[in-house]
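Quarterly update from the structural biology core.
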Amino acid sequence: MLSAAPVSAQHAAHYYSADNYCSAEAEQYSKWQGQAATHLELSGPVDADTFAKLLQGHTLEGQALQQRTSINHVAGIDLTFSAPKSISLAALWGGESALLAIHQRAVQIALEAVEAYSGTRLWQGNESYRHRFLSTGNIAISQFDHTTSRAQDPQLHTHNIVLNTTYTGQDWRALDTRRLFKYRKLWQTIYHQELRLGCQHLGYSLTMQSGHLELAGYAPEHLAYWSKRRQQILQTVGAGASASQKQIACLRTRPRKRAESALSALQQRWEKESQLLGI
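Predicted structure, tokenized:
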């Protein structure tokens, strides 16, 4: 699954409080991606101070990354790719680490497509409604891997914050972020296709459950149990709700983050739960 949401400059600290690691360890689970990031000499783990400054629309040296900015400007777009529940269970609880690499590669391939479609809008004259699209083919992405849902169920997902900037070859301009939303289904399709190919290459059998790709051998009721956040949302708006209604319900029913736990501690907890349920 892929969700897309705007990010403000005030969101920077959120990505350093991931579900199962402390902020001091967050950089280990993050990295820079994209040709614009390379142009800005950004590589390796995402430094918190650098990330916060970039979300404000400037480099650490003070160079503006957009032509015009405001206090409430859109700092970036968070494209979050979430692995199917069965893959999360097998990778995070079952210890099948090869599935982690498959998820990460699928995300990478999808982001390469996002970058290929990227560009900016050039305004013509003083008329705010007249513009043309300029393809640039470069973006800067700060990537954060998370492994649990807010209900602390196994949920492998990767936040990809696409900064609202792109390089034209002459200067930095705001990204045409509308395209990130317009082609969201394309990015999701690419992710799922790469995920399918990767799993099949390793010999996994796949099936469709309620329209979702899953590893074979997982009962629907077991997948539902380990999807507590999804069940909370469906109880709020109903199974027939639209994607936007479900997203609103997700935000309204979102619980506070619990005290951070090591993955090993969570695995022990999941094992106890499964024994009680007879899974």
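Residues 98-116 form the longest helix (19 residues).
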